[in-house]
Amino acid sequence: MARTVLVIGAGIGGLTAGSLLAKDGWPVTLLEASSELGGCASKFKRNKYLFPAGATLGMGLEPGGIHDRVFRHLGKPMAIEPLERVMEMVHPEATFVFHKDRARHVDGITAHFPQHSKQIRSFYKEIHQTAAIVRTLMDPLPALPPATAKEWTFLTKSIRPKHFKLLPFFNQTLDQRLKKHGLDTLKEFRHMLDGLLIDSMQTGSEDVAYLLAAVALDIYHEGAYYVPGGLYRFSELMGDSLRENGGVLKKRRTLEKLERQGELWVATDHRGNAYEATDVILNVPIQQLPKILAPELVSKLKVSLRDGIAGETWTTLTLYLAVDLTKLKEPLPPFRQISTGVNLAEGGHFFMSSSVPGDELRAPEGFQTVTISTHSRLQEWDSQEKYEKQRTVLTECMLQAIQRLIPEFREAIVHMESGAPKAWERFAGRPNGLVGGFPQTLDAALFNSISHRSGLPNLYVCGDHIFPGGGTIGAAASGIHAARSVSGKKLV
Questions:
Q1: Mean pLDDT value of segment 84-98
Q2: Residue 471 backbone zone (phi > 0: left; psi -120 to 50: alpha; other: beta)
Q3: Alpha-carbon distance 224 to 488, whole Å?
Q4: Domain named Amine oxidase: which ranges (predicted)?
Q5: Residue 1 — pLDDT band, cuts 50, 70, 90?
Q6: Any idea what the Cα angle at residue 305 is, between residues 424 and 382, rounded to 5°?
Q7: CATH fold of 5-44+59-79+229-311+437-487, please?
Q8: Ranges in the chain annotated CATH 3.50.50.60
Q9: What is the pTM of this model?
C-alpha cells in the first residue's frame, strides 16, 4: 500500500511537518479549520490595519536556528537582521534593557545592582555556559522522551563528553541555582527573570526546569528579530513550499472525527468530506483529542498525553490597538514587557509589541499597530458575569500601566479590540482559549514531556504541548520530530 500523509492543522508545527514531508516527495494533504495559516502565529485585518494574532517576536532565525534550518532546506531563507536592542523590561523599580550582546546585557543588569555585581556575573556566566552546551543538542535535535529503539540510539549518538557537565543540573530548578549564587532573595532581579520566563516557559523561576530556563534566558542573545508584517510570514513560506512540492492545502476544513479503519486513518471534516491516509499528524490542541477520537482510541493514547489533555495551562486576554504617531512624543518600541510588580498574570505583567514605523504591511504611514497580552487563569472566566468583568478589569489594568509610562497613549488610540478566551477558541481553535503550552516545570519537561508519538499506530502529534514545548521554535521542533518519524529520515 502506498503511504500517504494527512496533516490536521496549519499551525507552525503542522506546516513544518507537512512542508518537510512534501519537500521529501511524500503525498501530503493539509487541512486547516481557519481561513488563515499559522494558528496562534497567524494574522487578521481590520480596515487598514493588520494585527498578529499572538506570537510577534521572531526567534530561531539565526544561522543554524530551527526556523533558519527549515526555511533554508525548503529553499526559502529569510534575510532579516537581528535586533541589537531586543526589548525593554519595565518594572516598578527600574527599566532593564535586553541587549543582544551578552557582555553589554550583563553590564546593564549589574549597573542596577552594583552590590551584587559579582554574584550576578557568576550567575550569567553559568547560564551562558549551560545554554551553549544544551544548544549543541539542537543540531541533531533528538526527540524526548525516546519512545523507540531508533530514538534511543539517535539520542545516544547525539551525546558528547561535554553533555555530561549537564547532569548535576538535570533535576534542578532555576530557584536552586539562584540560591547557589546568593541571588534568591534579590527580589527585583528575580522578578525581572520571572517576566522573561513566564512569556517563554509559562512559569517563573521558582518552578522552571533549570536547563530549559538557561536556554530561555540566553536564546535572545543568539538572535531575536522583528519580522516585517509579522510571524504569519513563516506560515506563508511553508504553505507555499508545500503546494510547490505537490502538497494539497485546504482551508476552512474543520476536523469532526478521526477513525481507524484497517491499516488506514479516515478523517471526516465538517462538510462531510472524508480523507484517507496511512499516516496522520495532528497539529491541534491536545484538549480536542477526546472530541475527534472514539473513547476506545483515547484510552490507548500514551499516559503522558492523556494526562496533558486533563491538565490546565494559561489562557489570555490580548488587546489589539492602532495608534496615531502624531499624538505620541516618540514611536513605540517594537517589543516591551511591562510589569506592575504585583504578579505574573491577570494584567500584572504583560507583553507589548508594536509595528515598526514604515512597516506598511501592518499599518499605513503615521500609524503603528500594537498587540498586548497577559496571562490569565481559566477559572477567572468561567461564568458570563466573571467573563465580562475580567475582560474590563484586565483591559483597564494594562492601559493604566501603559498610561503611567506614556501619558499621551490613550489619546493616540484610533482602534482597539480585545481577544478574550472565547475569541481564541473561535479564531484559533483553542478550547477555552488555552494557549502557550504547558509550564516547563521539572515534572513536565525533558524526559517528562509529551512525546510526538501518540501511542496509536502512525498517528503523531505536534504543537505547543508537545516536546520541546511552546513558542514557534518549540512547535516547529515538534513538527520536525513528527516528519522524521513518518519519513524515517533526519530531513533537517
A1: 96
A2: left
A3: 32
A4: 12-486
A5: confident
A6: 35
A7: FAD/NAD(P)-binding domain (3.50.50)
A8: 5-44+59-79+229-311+437-487
A9: 0.97
